[in-house]
Design a protein that fits this description.
The complex is a heterodimer of chains A (about 290) and B (about 350). Chain A has about 290 residues and is an all-alpha fold. Helices cover about 75% and strands about 0% of the residues of chain A. Chain A is built from 15 helices and no strands. The radius of gyration of chain B is 26 Å and the shape is globular. The longest helix of chain B is centred in the first third of the chain and has 41 residues, at about 35-75. Chain B has helices at about 5-10, 15-25, 35-75, 95-100, 110-140, 145-155, 160-170, 175-180, 195-210, 210-220, 225-235, 240-250, 255-265, 275, 290-300, 305-335; strands at about 75-80, 85-90. Classes of the chains: A mainly alpha (about 290), B mainly alpha (about 350). At the A-B interface, helix 1, helix 2, helix 5, helix 6 and helix 7 of A face helix 1, helix 2, helix 3, helix 5 and helix 6 of B.
């Protein structure tokens, strides 16, 4: 085996055209990374300038590092009479609350459908698959009418739309519960536990790692979502929708350094999550991309 | 259930198989104690339906109602106000007549939205081989591959609001790109305010930030290719491009075709962060930058004449269904069916 690896290595090393390709690709990768980092550093640089300085030359380094912009941002950035403290709070309940509702509802539905046999379960499974496959083009007009009828537009009640139990999270959790052994539950039943108790005390805790990664992904997606809050939660701007509305309304005389400070503050929670759960996020996000 | 196949590729789930497993796992009632069986079954059913009740109601409202209401709206036309001020609607085919009459109008918003949507879609198609090749080199452990993998993924999680705002500044006159180009005596034209380049500039943004998700997906598929195969290839002195196209490609085909199917599934939903690019001299309702899904969003935001966008949405949803099936059929035909 070791011999084979060494032969393989020698082949790789002697393979000249691979080395050429590797160098070219490496240079391209490095250039691409440079553009991404440049963009982020440019934003940080801009966020530390004074407004006058920024207007004179957008590219120069700040003469004096104005960290105070980050404090100013909390009060100066306003959207629909909500400052950044309010936006932070809205972002938290919109993303965490919504994500919690989604993963909890999905774990309930996927557990019942995966582990119990009852009339209609195959229909429910089929519905979950089919709804995922049909690409609905723009249901916003109808959404607007229905939300309006239900009086949940522009209200925190809009969160019930997140309590959907048959989406992408259902499919992932379904395949998890399907392979989870039923013997744990049986042990619970012998001890006289009810179905409900077995679910909450025995089965759900075993799914926590999967639920956790789905939760993190959902939080990040909702945190970054600006289209839904802009349309349906105008009085409750989140950081994403609020910073967009702020830019739109303050087209002239906007304090760009403060805006960039606000934007950077808005991505810090996501970066922190990413640093903590890097691998979980990359893997679950890419599966999440399947959803389309 | 033809449609489950897409998912089997990724998740390995299939309804019949699932049913079987559940049958084995579900509590088996004892046959001789009939009374107990029914009692037990009843409590089980009560649990199942009790747990599913609220999610099913939620589904009935926010999926069934919304989407059937889309269909109703498509076949309705505004018909004045009622005595108490509510809007009245009557059944008609007006929305569809209006839509088909737009085809002969070259300056129509919907038609240029369709054209732009196809451009975003084409960019999405082009990104697939790019992310595939990037994934290959990361898989081959190019220098610094761990670092590259993380950095390439960053745009997928960092808020588009930040990235677009920076991007707009970077390509502004007097911005860094302009400074760079002026070294060669070229100045940056007004990319976003010029109709000819506006959509291209937004597409360039989606390409710049759009590597992440598929790249990770392909890379994890490649890492599942057996080591022995790669070692044998190396021993035979297979050049890298042959290794990529003749060994890796057939072996990760299921993943590749899943991503392609998903791209085709959302063909009419292809778009970019157009909303964020608007403002500061860039008109939102500009045919030059419009896409179908963004147009429908925008019409909803304006809140008048909602029936017409609903009809357009229904039309393109219907058109995309056969497209999905044809793509699936074609990609299955192309499948080299490698098993390992």
């Amino acid at each position: 085996m070791r011999k084979m690896i060494s032969i393989k290595r020698s082949f790789q090393q002697t393979s000249k055209d691979y080395l050429v390709a590797k160098i070219i690709v490496f240079v391209l990768f490095a250039l691409y990374v440079f553009t991404l980092f440049f963009a982020l550093l440019w934003a940080i640089n801009a966020s530390l300038k004074s407004q006058v300085e920024f207007n004179q030359d957008v590219n120069s380094l700040p003469k004096e590092w104005l960290f105070s912009n980050y404090i100013t941002a909390f009060t100066a950035v306003n959207a629909n009479e909500t400052n950044m403290f309010g936006m932070f709070w809205n972002s938290i309940w919109y993303s965490c609350g919504g994500a919690l509702l989604t993963v909890f509802t999905s774990s309930v539905t996927s557990y019942v459908v995966a582990k119990y046999k009852f009339p209609g379960r195959n229909v429910i499974y089929a519905i979950a698959i089919i709804t995922m496959m049909i690409p609905i083009v723009g249901s916003f007009p109808s959404q607007y009418r229905v939300y309006d009828t239900l009086k949940i537009i522009d209200s925190p009640l809009i969160l019930i739309t997140a309590a959907a139990g048959f989406g992408f999270e259902f499919i992932v959790l379904f395949s998890f519960f399907r392979t989870l052994s039923w013997t744990y539950a049986e042990a619970g039943f012998i001890d006289g536990a009810s179905h409900l108790k077995v679910f909450f005390r025995v089965m759900l805790p075993q799914a926590l790692p999967v639920i956790g990664s789905l939760f993190i992904v959902a939080v990040v997606n909702r945190w970054n979502d600006y289209m839904f809050p802009t349309l349906f939660m105008q009085s409750y701007p989140t950081l994403s929708s609020g910073l967009y509305i702020f830019q739109l309304e303050m087209t002239r005389g906007i304090n760009y350094p403060v805006l960039f400070a606000g934007l950077i503050i808005s991505v810090i929670p996501v970066i922190v999550l990413f640093v903590c759960f890097q691998n979980t996020m990359m893997e679950s996000m890419s599966v999440g991309g399947i959803k389309g | 259930m033809e449609q489950t196949d897409i998912l089997t590729a990724e998740f390995g789930t299939e309804s019949s198989e699932a049913a079987e497993v559940a049958e084995n796992n579900a509590p088996q009632p004892e046959k001789d104690k009939k009374k107990k069986i029914t009692k037990r079954k009843i409590s089980e059913y009560v649990f199942c339906y009790g747990m599913l009740l609220l999610p099913l109601i939620q589904f009935a409202i926010f999926y069934v109602w919304i989407n059937s209401n889309s269909i109703f709206m498509a076949f309705q036309e505004f018909d004045g106000y009622s005595d108490n001020g509510g809007e009245l609607f009557k059944w008609s085919l007006y929305n569809f007549e209006r839509f088909f009459s737009e085809w002969s109008n070259p300056s129509s918003m919907v038609i240029s939205a369709l054209k732009n949507t196809m451009r975003y879609f084409a960019a999405g198609i082009c990104m697939i081989p790019v992310s595939f090749i990037v994934a290959y080199f990361l898989y081959k452990k190019i220098w610094g591959y761990k670092f590259f993998r993380v950095v390439f993924f960053l745009p997928s999680i960092i808020s588009a609001v930040l990235f677009v705002t920076v991007y707009k500044e970077l390509i502004e006159y007097g911005g860094p790109l302009d400074m760079f180009l002026s070294l060669f005596g070229v100045r940056v034209p007004p990319l976003l305010t010029d109709d000819a380049t506006a959509t291209g500039t937004i597409i360039a943004y989606t390409i710049w930030t759009g590597l992440g998700v598929n790249m990770i997906l392909y890379q994890s598929a490649m890492s599942r290719v057996p080591k022995e195969v790669m070692e044998a290839a190396a021993l035979d002195g297979v050049p890298w491009y042959k290794e990529l196209t003749q060994i890796i490609l057939p072996m990760v085909w299921p993943t590749l075709s899943t991503t392609l199917i998903l791209l085709f599934t959302s063909i009419f939903n292809s778009t970019g962060p157009i909303l964020l690019f608007a403002g500061a001299g860039v008109e939102v309702d500009n045919p030059a930058t419009m896409t179908l899904s963004f147009w429908i969003y925008r019409q909803t935001q304006k809140g008048v004449d909602l029936n017409y966008p609903a009809a357009v949405g229904i039309f393109f949803t219907l058109v995309s269904v056969p497209i999905v099936f044809i793509t699936r059929w074609l990609l299955n035909k192309l499948d080299p069916k490698v098993t390992y």
